[in-house]
Amino acid sequence: MLVDLHCHTLPLSACSALDPLELARLAAERGLGGICLTEHDRAWDADALDALRRAAPIAVFSAAELTTDLGHVLAFGLPAAAFSAEARELAAAAERHGALLYLAHPARDGLLRVTRETVEYFVSVEAANGSDSRLQNIAAAGLAKGFRLPGIGGSDAHTAAEVGRAATRFAAAVSSDGDLLDALRAGAYEAVLLDS
Ligand SMILES: [Zn+2]
Ligand SMILES: [Zn+2]
Fold first, then answer.
1. Which residue from 112, 143, 154, 181 puts its CA 20 to 30 A from 189's CA?
2. Which stretches are annotated as coiled coil (predicted)?
3. pLDDT, position 196
4. What would the CATH number be for the domain defined by 2-193?
């Protein structure tokens, strides 16, 4: 099952031009089985998320992309109250909540800000990002090899054309945020770049 683990929608990500339902429909058309909403530093309201899930043709998961001192971090299973701009605080919260942190598009800034100590905050990196160049994705996939879990993949879509350019292929079907977290923890997935 292919799930896009990195998507931005309006209005929570002001930089995006994508309506959430449009995103889900486009992703379905392009062969994905699920999308994960990762708005910048914002969590979806539970009722709005329920309504979107009822209307969407594919599974909809919820996570976040947090802006931190070590770069952008994709956080899965972290409650909004624990969001922080300090990676050290995020790591402590992730530990408490059993959440997973991945460094997003790690080759984009050209310089990794993680050190020997802070690299421990992350279970892995985003190894395939649909908005990054081929070279950046090769570098990111190489970085992922140094972590205990495989790298994840996502489109980082902000517009319709970008939907479905990268995803994460899960070995088994996932249907809830809990399933997604379990599958990530088990490492039963791989990052994929897709032609679209
Ligand atoms: Zn980012
Ligand atoms: Zn993003």
1. 112
2. none
3. 55
4. 3.20.20.140
82 touches 88 (CB < 8 A): no
What's the average model confidence in pLDDT over 162-175?
A: 96
Structure confidence by residue, pLDDT tens digits, 2-49: 999 999 998 998 888 899 999 999 999 999 999 999 999 999 999 999
Ligand nearest to the CA of 166: 2
Ligand lying closest to the C-alpha of residue 155: 2
CA of 37 to the centre of ligand 1 (A): 13
Report how far ligand 2's centroid is from the alpha carbon of 38 (Å).
7
**Contact by Cβ (8 Å): 129, 136:** yes
CB 7 within 8 A of CB 44: no
How is residue 103 written in tokens? 């460094």
Q: Enumerate residues with CB within 5 Å of ligand 1 (an ion).
A: 72, 104
The closest ligand to the CA of 6 turns out to be 2
Q: Are the CB atoms for 181 and 154 separated by under 8 Å?
A: no
